[in-house]
Amino acid sequence: MGNNYNFRFNPKLPSREDIQRHKDFGALLRRYKSQKDGQRTRRLRRLRVISISSAAAAAIAAIAIVLGGVFSAPNKPALTAGEYFAGQKFIQPPLADEVQPQFASFRVNANQGGVYEYPSGSRLVVPAAAFADDRGRLIEGEVDIRYREMHDYLDFFLAGIPLTYDSAGIQYHLESAGMIEIYAEKDGQPVQLAPGKNIDVELVSEIIVPSLNLKAPPRYNIYQLDTFSREWLYQDVDNIQFVEDEILEENDPLLQYKRELLGKYDAIDSRAAEELHAIESAIPKPVEPLRPYRADPGRPTLELNFLDGSLNIEDTRNGEVQNELAKLQQMYKGVIWQISPSSPAFDERAFSVSWESVRIRPVNNRDYELTLIHPQNQVTLIV
Known about the structure:
Helix content is 27%, strand content 23%. The chain is of the alpha+beta class. The protein folds into 4 domains: 21-86; 97-237, no CATH class; 245-285; 301-382, no CATH class. Strands 1-5-8-9-4 form a 5-stranded antiparallel β-sheet. A hairpin with a 4-residue loop joins strand 11 (221-226) and strand 12 (231-237). The protein is elongated, with a radius of gyration of 40 Å.
């Protein structure tokens, strides 16, 4: 008989509506349980047949087993997805322990603390007097620290780590730049961190960075998995830093390609630096604002509005008078002007006169010459 194969090329992808219609975990679980119960019943019936052929007493016992399955209490209602997973272990590796990310172990003197370098380049800093027993008493002597890292979704899957995160009733999936698991033991018994003590971990990991933003690492938050409450708890913001460039090994079969890749990265960095410098050079630097001072209660003050038409500015920039007035209004809106100590002497009765116009011109980067104009008189002040 020849082989009868049915190859399907470019099968039609299911629509979003089809996917939603078939996302019924309860029905799947009920179908699974019914198939499992059917298999169990058939298995018991086979036992009964074998027992009958061997001895009557054994046959009676086998029949009792079958009847026990037939006349037992009715099946409980099918569990929902939430109820089913709530009854499972929170961290449940799908495969044997041998294929999971393995723990490294190192010993540290609890009285002195120490530093441990992980093969990946990660660094653990253990402070002195960092451990205590379940009664809060400080641990002395040698303490064994178990530590492992998980860097990608394969590691997370093999370790059985859940990646769902609930926020305000909405479930999200975490995107991780790396995880660690760490605990400490003394003579085979777990110990805890003493109050106020922390183990600093500098985790070295690889993340994908957009080519246009190579110098700015992406932002991540730090979470801790609480296995009792079955949730990820927010801890802090990240502190990601780029490590030194990769050290190439001469016997690496990909040495040539890695060198070419690093050369392209360097060229991108150089071009980005040149373009950034050109942009910065084209933008004039802002003028440092003057430091404000408190008004002297012994000197007269003024309020000036540069846009109500009562002020004329001396035309020093080819007719851009209105632009200068608008700039002054923006710079000094709400500012109280005060007569400068360097101002010429003036008669205070000038402030009771209705002046027809006012002219202003800058003297330096702080002071202005203010001229009050009347057909019969004018007064010049430094403000």
